[in-house]
Design a protein that fits this description.
Layout (H helix, E strand, L loop, with lengths): L3 E3 L12 E7 L2 E6 L3 E6 L15 E5 L2 E6 L17 E6 L4 E6 L1 E7 L5 E2 L10 E6 L4 E5 L1 H10 L16 H19 L11 E7 L2 E6 L3 E6 L13 E7 L2 E7 H5 L8 H6 L2 E6 L4 E6 L1 E7 L2 H6 L8 E7 L2 E6 L1 H5 L11
Parallel strand pairs: 3-12, 6-8, 14-22, 17-19
Antiparallel strand pairs: 1-4, 2-3, 2-9, 4-7, 5-6, 7-8, 10-11, 11-12, 13-14, 13-20, 15-18, 16-17, 18-19, 21-22
């Protein structure tokens, strides 16, 4: 089956304006605002008709729309190398259009620290790079999708490359590309255009070697490598506290809280490298410690209900999505658990 991740982030609050996905193109890293990403997938079979704008590498039938597929390397003066079946495709949107970008691979989702952003005048009229983000040991060039959209409309000088020759032509690769294309077409036969902006969004993460997810409506922020300070406490599910914008936030070890057997990171790893999902309700703000945060996915409500069960009050459903088994947490039961209301967590 096709490896597909949906983002559908049209309804992110202003608090998540600094959330960006970054990816690889050659040896460089580039970022796009998560709100502008519709879907991530392995590159499928693309159409390449004889008459095609010279700044487009292919066309894709996406949910009854024919969308342009671009390779930013043509506009960023990066060497264009042949594609393989491991290349990924970002489906992105602006206020006016939807189009696709071929990339080498997605790296991560980060919350940009504005103090590490650098603006300066970029050469060229296209201004595809909006600004630079100087993170820890790496620089991410953030893409201005509106500028990319203008390039599509305006066109560029003729590209002296045989674009169809960039795609794999061996039988095995072609078969996989065709399979992905067929799976994409079949998927949209079951949905309507209106579902492009679905609200069934979840953040996926790992506990040990298993995939879990929680509804995004509970999530305030994602944190990585925050220093967790241990505190005197006789509750084993309390990992410690973190400081966040001057506030102390208690961190819950989710594995211990819901009873998942412990074979993940050591206590030293938790202190030095961690992934935390912060949750805020009317009653409290809490950090949820997980092993690794992955991506935002969309799961249809009918699929969740179809596989719902009550083997545990903390688990609402288990289902297979794109060849991966996800355990969906019942956040209402978790957040209403009496252990969240122990005074001072001590």
């Amino acid at each position: 089956m096709m490896n597909v991740t949906k983002f559908y982030n049209n309804d992110f609050s202003d608090e998540n304006e600094n959330l960006y996905l970054y990816f690889n193109l050659g040896d460089s890293k580039y970022g796009i605002k998560v709100q502008q990403i519709v879907e991530i997938m392995k590159v499928p079979l693309l159409d390449y008709p004889q008459k095609l704008a010279n700044n487009v590498v292919g066309l894709l039938n996406y949910n009854n729309f024919t969308i342009n597929i671009l390779d930013l390397r043509f506009y960023l003066d990066i060497k264009v190398t042949p594609y393989s079946i491991s290349n990924q495709l970002l489906i992105v949107k602006t206020d006016e259009s939807i189009f696709g970008l071929i990339i080498d691979g997605v790296e991560d989702i980060i919350n940009l620290d504005q103090s590490k952003v650098e603006y300066f005048q970029f050469a060229g009229e296209d201004k595809i790079i909006d600004f630079l983000y100087k993170g820890e040991g790496e620089t991410i060039s953030v893409i201005n999708l509106s500028a990319v959209e203008d390039v599509i409309k305006r066109g560029v000088e003729s590209i002296d490359i045989d674009i169809p020759s960039l795609f794999p032509h061996d039988d095995s690769s072609r078969y996989k590309l065709v399979q992905r294309n067929q799976a994409l077409l079949a998927k949209f036969e079951l949905s309507s255009v209106a579902n492009i902006f679905s609200h069934d969004k979840f953040i996926s993460f790992s506990l040990n070697d298993s995939l879990y997810c929680m509804n995004l409506e509970y999530v305030k922020e994602f944190l990585k490598n925050s220093l967790i300070t241990q505190i005197p406490c006789n509750l084993d599910y309390i990992a410690g506290v973190i400081t966040q914008r001057g506030d102390f936030v208690t961190v819950i070890d989710l594995k211990k809280f819901i009873g998942v057997s412990e074979n993940g990171p050591s206590s030293e790893d938790i202190q030095n490298k961690n992934s935390i999902i912060t949750i805020e309700t009317e009653d409290f703000k809490i950090g949820i410690l997980v092993d690794k945060i992955f991506s935002i996915i969309e799961i249809p409500e009918e699929m969740i209900n179809m596989h719902s069960y009550k083997q545990s009050k903390f688990i609402f459903s288990e289902l297979i999505l794109e060849d991966k088994l996800y355990t969906i947490l019942d956040m209402k039961n978790i957040l209403s658990d009496e252990r969240f209301f122990v005074e001072d967590f001590s």
